[in-house]
């Protein structure tokens, strides 16, 4: 075989080998680039997912914060309105009780209150009345002849308190009744703010 043909075959073999290596390197480069792109995409998706989750979480927290603030604001408004209603109701109650204490029916109430309290005690009693009820002193003495009557400036609306020889005090005043109703009204389920 002539030298030139050998040289041609040798160059041809080297060229084929070089072409095969070039294609192999190109394929490996494409595979590497594809793998790196896929890896980068996955990382980007992962980061995007976490960014979205964090954003959603932050938005939820902001919404809950706003909702909590509004709930608190409305609770305060509700408490203020409840207190207004409470004041309105008990101002009306106090006016009506004062009107009652100035009426003819009050004298009968005072008799019953004195008898109810006296039935719970025994012996000589002390009857406490408000200053305005001093005019009923004779009425009370006619029911309880052995009693001592004392003016009590702490009684505002009427009724009586009664004690027997240092024993417990029976409070049958309108003041205490109003306070009791006030507590019950305040604790009424519909008016409790939770």
Q: What would you note in describing this structure?
A:
It is a single chain. The protein is of the alpha+beta class and 194 residues long. It has a domain at 102-191: hypothetical protein PF0899 fold. The chain has four helices and four strands, in the order ααβαβββα. It has helices at residues 3-101, 105-119, 137-143, 174-186; strands spanning 125-129, 148-151, 159-164, 169-173. Strands 2-1-3-4 form a four-stranded mixed sheet. The radius of gyration is 48 Å and the shape is rod-shaped.
Level-1 CATH class name of the domain at 102-191: Alpha Beta
Low-confidence stretches: none
State the fourth-level CATH superfamily of the domain at 102-191.
ATP synthase, E subunit, C-terminal
Report on the biggest sheet: 4 strands, mixed
The second-level CATH architecture of the domain at 102-191 is 2-Layer Sandwich
First-residue to last-residue Cα separation: 107 Å
In the CATH hierarchy, the third-tier topology of the domain at 102-191 is known as: hypothetical protein PF0899 fold
DSSP summary, beta strand count: 4
Mean of all residue-level pLDDT scores: 88
Quick description:
By secondary structure, the chain is α+β, with helices and mostly antiparallel strands. The protein has helices spanning 3-101, 105-119, 137-143, 174-186, and strands at residues 125-129, 148-151, 159-164, 169-173.
